[in-house]
Amino acid sequence: MGSVANVAELDASVVKITRSTDLRPVPAPGSPEELSHSYCTDHMATARWTITNGWETPEIKPYGNLSIPPTASCLHYATECFEGMKVYRGFDGKLRLFRPDCNGERLLSSAQRTTLPSFRYEELKVLIAKLMQIDGPRWLPKDQPGRFLYLRPTLIGSGPHLGIQTPKEALLFIVAVPWPDPSQLKKPGQAGKPGLKLLASAPDTIRAWPGGFGNAKLGANYGPSLVAHGKAQAVGFDQVLWLFGEDRQVTEAGASNFFVVWENKDTGKLELVTAPLENQLILPGVTRRSVLQLARTEMSKSVGSLAPVEVIERDFTIGEVEQAWKEGRIVESFVCGTAVRFNSHTYYPRDMLTRYQYYITPVKVIRNGDVDMDMLEAGASRAGYAVQLKAWLEAIMFGKDGQENHEWSYIIEGESEK
């Protein structure tokens, strides 16, 4: 949405702060409150925008419900976008964000796709930092490194105007939520290998299309996909592997980016393959971007027992995956994303580790029609790329193993002692 002259830009350098006088109990790891994915920290950040005046002074205030009119644009015309991020308590005691400008830039792009107001995306990390300066010390104590909070920055059309028109008012808000950590929830003697079970989508079910908005993080992308997701869960699968077109191109897995490591049938070389961004069928994930950069810089040569891989972004089909599996050319497959996501509380605690997404998660099985492809056993002797990539990412996120000052980290200073 184009900017209007003489209106205020989003500026997080000055924030109005109202501290809560009724602090919420911090939930224990694995508690019902934490598993609810809805128990927020004590405070939230908000910033209001109007077409007349632009952005108002942002606020940090006690967490609470929003007040919007029943005619709000977001409720009728899906003028809403959001981001998924985390703040990490590092092993050096510091709070970190992981590549927050990538999330800010993507939120801006999503906002523009759904006619919400523009903003300086660099301000997002500053506003988050001010929120975490207040809530970080209590919700992520320095003596408990390795923990994190999930962050949900959201921008909605909040004005009362019915009718097909661009929003005249909008609200940016940010909440922080304790999120289950599978490493703390694993039960002694828990059986089963970790990994997701994916069900290939039916030809008559489409998540995104060229020229659409599959590359924007809009609520409108997710609601319509829940029907297929529910059907997949009902027959024992975790997520849908979304396919597109008559040739059934592989795009995303649930709300995650999908990767496969295989042996090229012509050259015999190993490739790390994922769908491209150019046709707007997939979300440009921040974790995806990081995986590709790490793989290109660190995996072009051998890493321990791992052979070099070539990184490929191209269209590929479920037929190619199935052929590679039948010919023994599959090494492994995985998905990546920000959130640790449990599909149903009915899965807890049974088989917990097979039903989450934790930065990078292996794919266990892909069902395409009447064919079940075992992706864990396919190339087990050569696998390990997902594990290595995950280790590199975690070192950066939590500031360990010599990665305390990595360029992808944004360190939050000035935590409150109150």
TrEMBL record:
Broad class of enzyme this protein falls into: transferase
One Pfam family, short name: Aminotran_4
Required cofactor(s): pyridoxal 5'-phosphate
Gene Ontology molecular function, alphabetical: branched-chain-amino-acid transaminase activity
Keywords annotated in UniProt: Amino-acid biosynthesis, Aminotransferase, Branched-chain amino acid biosynthesis, Pyridoxal phosphate, Transferase
SUPFAM superfamilies: D-aminoacid aminotransferase-like PLP-dependent enzymes
PTM-bearing positions, type N6-(pyridoxal phosphate)lysine: K217
GO CC terms of this entry: mitochondrion
Catalytic activity from the UniProt record: L-leucine + 2-oxoglutarate = 4-methyl-2-oxopentanoate + L-glutamate; L-valine + 2-oxoglutarate = 3-methyl-2-oxobutanoate + L-glutamate; L-isoleucine + 2-oxoglutarate = (S)-3-methyl-2-oxopentanoate + L-glutamate
InterPro entries in the cross-refs: Aminotrans_IV, Aminotrans_IV_CS, Aminotransferase-like, B_amino_transII, BCAT-like_C, BCAT-like_N
Biological process annotations from GO: L-leucine biosynthetic process; L-valine biosynthetic process
Similarity remark: Belongs to the class-IV pyridoxal-phosphate-dependent aminotransferase family.
PANTHER family: BRANCHED-CHAIN-AMINO-ACID AMINOTRANSFERASE, SUBGROUP IIII AMINOTRANSFERASE
Protein name: Branched-chain-amino-acid aminotransferase
Species per Swiss-Prot/TrEMBL record: Aspergillus avenaceus
